[in-house]
Specification:
- The complex is a heterodimer of chains A (314) and B (274).
- Chain A is mainly alpha-helical.
- Helix content of chain A is 71%, strand content 3%.
- In chain A, the strands form 2 sheets. In chain A, strands 1-2 form a two-stranded antiparallel sheet. In chain A, strands 3-4 form a two-stranded antiparallel ribbon.
- In chain A, helix 4 packs parallel to helix 8.
- With 274 residues, chain B is mostly helical.
- Helices cover 73% and strands 0% of the residues of chain B.
- Chain B contains 12 helices and no strands.
- Chain B has helices spanning 7-31, 36-39, 55-63, 66-98, 104-111, 117-130, 137-162, 165-173, 178-207, 210-215, 223-228, 238-268.
- The longest helix of chain B has 33 residues, at 66-98.
- The chains are: A mainly alpha (314), B mainly alpha (274).
- Chains A and B meet through helix 2, helix 4, helix 5, helix 6 and helix 7 of A and helix 1, helix 4, helix 5, helix 6 and helix 7 of B.
Chain lengths: 314, 274
Amino acid sequence: MSASRDKAGAEVLPSDLGRKQSVWEVLTSEKYFKWTLLSPLLLLLILFLIYPFLYCIYYSFFTYGVRAAPVFIGLDNYRAALHDARFWAAAGKTGQVLVISLIVELGLGMGIAMLFNREFRGQNVVRGLCLLPLLIMPLAMSMIWNFILQYDFGAVNQVLLALGGDKIQWFHPDYAIYTICFINIWQWFPFATFVLLAGLSGLPKDSFEAAKVDGASGWFTFRKLTLPMLSPLIMIIVLLRTMWLIRIFDPLYGTTRGGANTEVLDWMVYRNAFVFFDVGYGSTLAIVSLFGTIVLCAILFRQLMRALGVTEQA
Amino acid sequence: MRRPVNSFLFWLATVFVLFIVIAPISWIFVTAFKIPSDIYTLDLTKLLVFSPTSDNFWYLFSETPYWHEFGNTVIISVVSTVLVMLVSLPAAYSFARWNTGSGHLLFITISTRMFPAVVAAIPMFFLFKQLHLCDTHFGIIMLYTYFNMSFATFLLYGFFREIPVELEQAAQIDGYGRMEILRKVIFPLIAPGASITAVFCLVFAWNEFLYALLFTRLAARTLSLGISSLWGAIEIQWGPMAAGIAVGILPTLIAAWFMQRYIVRGLTFGAVKG
């Protein structure tokens, strides 16, 4: 018996023809079910994504203090932002943190993943412990680090003194940004580590054995075999961490609060919008940084898709 | 990739890594029990040898609204995680099975994570003020639901992709309706992936700070805010703060203990076929 099909390609049984479908049936029918499933998400997206986005764009064209009514000033805010040395400094700082953190995290993650990529006694405990930095409250960690790295009585300086060295001012304006990088890296290196570890443990053994039989050195194997096979995962890590690093905020709140030459993008937006209550300019900064983020992430996303596509063909 | 393992070097490196990881965390627990003079001293031995006191904890529990904040955080984290799962599970299924929106919708969902957190906060602040949602549990819960939604959808999307379509098609041939397929076939298979996602969302909601800072004052205060409030304008109360952090991270430590077995699998969601 041949089945007739409706426009969506779902099978229509003869007994169904001519019967009006109930709302539930329509919603769960082949054509609409996927949208029904998606509806709560879409609702939240519109409410929390589209609306803020449009709001920010709208108010970025105004000056809007707290008490006064908003005044339309056209593109002045954008002009001010692009000429604002502070803004570019903040963008530069964010870029600095991004690049340094990514490189160190990937390097550390790779190294530790290779270290742990073997069976050893107590491996569950060790891996569980290494997971901890990811899960601790970032704000709490930033305050803890603030204390440990305190100039006067922090633990690290105490140890340095005991070893005969000098106390270091960890939050000095010249290199406070590196301290912030360090705090961030400490918190997030387990992420890269575990993703790469999972990748490493999933790699096919045959290619590596063949390489060893052919006499390839360890470094060569790493460059030509391990890295290319792990490239999708590396791209995922880069993409996700980029998205998270651009919005870095918690480590700053517990330590320098934007002082000591560590003002990053998110912090600047926060200060303008919620400390100075300059909603107009804050919105402008937000939109500009958002635009930069989207461009950057879109590029990374394309790279990721390409890397994934290559793997699937192999 | 097996190289001859030099056991000593391996353990040396492992211990070094572990030390870097554990030292700061154990430092909190140690400091929570110290008296102020021991905290502010330069004497190195005081790092390990000190007279323990539970003063910090008593101060924390009686003088500050700690338990109130703790309870708030529990409620907010749990409820928002439940909501996130309710929203993300069907959505991820929709994306994985039918690629709804041809990849664009998925990208938009994920892109919510790209917003610097403050960007969304500005308009939400005004919206919340108008709707009198500031400092309410409901407001923060909705925010956290949105906040975790993209991450959960992305993660669950990967998990759903691992479930072979043939299973569903077999069930369809057998005559199961859509909802029955969801319940009987998909649900048991997605349970481990969904659990990991749920735990992650719980932890993220528990640890979140920026939105709590901006949107709560007194009634719906969360732990992160409570701990940061110990950083006064005049002095920083390290003792009670360490105590607060120590108690505050206990739930996450417990979560970590349960999760560590599944993390390695969960984080790759099948991106690499072994």
